[in-house]
Amino acid sequence: MGRSYDINEMSYQLGERVTEALGVEGTGVSVADKAGNLKFVAATSEPIVVIEEIQERIQEGPCVSAFRNQKPVVVGNIDDVDEWPAYKETATRLGLGAVVGLPLSYDGIRLGALNIYATEPREWTDDDLDILTVFADMATAYLVRGSQLAESRELANQLQSALDSRVLIEQAKGVLANEYGTTVDDAFDRLRRHSQNHNTKLIDVCRAVVEQGMKIPG
Questions:
Q1: pLDDT digits over 11-26, tens only?
Q2: What domains sit in the chain, N to C, each tagged with a CATH number?
Q3: How far apart are CA 99 and CA 41, in angstroms?
């Protein structure tokens, strides 16, 4: 058996690579829970966390539509969208101008979706979408542990574990932001740097911060 991926850690790494490759504001990765609802497990910045939380709560938006219909949802200007009013209002308030939602699936199993956000309206080109498709395929590979798809029951357990880990990561960000008087984005950077510098899983660092009061100065 190969080593299983840490879904949250890999999702954050993927999001950073997408952001750098296309010069966008950020990305969010969502997975389906056991009830078939879409919930986000990773978001690259606080505005993306907020918009993904809204989408998760109301189960409406480009990510949800891409997941349900198993087709990409390409929005060049969020202001022009007539559907998803609550999502649209939040996105506009956060200064997000364009979005692409891509479904993640493997061998007929719907796993989740990948969302990519730009701050300004953007004409997503064929090249952009080709690049994003590659990243969506990578995200799918992470979710199924590379090329080896787990049995459906085990996969569902892994996705649920990723959702639980998301909560712990958000808690750790809040603890550090409050302790050091920083933004949550800065707090998350501290967590990631500590994880990378000490070759420790991100979720283990977050658990130490939340449950053991570990200090991570800037």
A1: 888 888 888 889 999 9
A2: 7-150 (3.30.450.40), 163-212 (1.10.10.10)
A3: 18
d(CA 49, CA 26): 10
What are the residues whose beta carbons fall under 8 Å from the beta carbon of 7, sequence distance 6 or more? 31, 41, 142, 143, 158, 159, 161, 162, 165
Q: Using alpha carbons only, what angle is made at residue 25 by residues 98 and 185, rounded to the nearest 5 degrees?
A: 135
CA distance 48 to 149: 29
- Residues 160-186: what's their mean pLDDT? 87
pTM for this prediction: 0.71
What b-and-e string marks burial along 97-125, b requiring 16 or more CB atoms within 10 Å of the CB? bbbbbbbbbeeeebbbbbbbbbeeebebe
Kindly write down the DSSP assignment for every residue of 53-83, as one continuous string: HHHHHHT-SHHHHHHHHTS-EEES-GGG--S
CB atoms within 10 A of CB 30: 30
CA dist list (Å): 155 to 4, 95, 132, 137: 11, 35, 24, 17
The pLDDT of residue 129 is: 94
Q: 């995200």: which residue's tokens? A: 139
Residue 1 confidence (pLDDT):
36
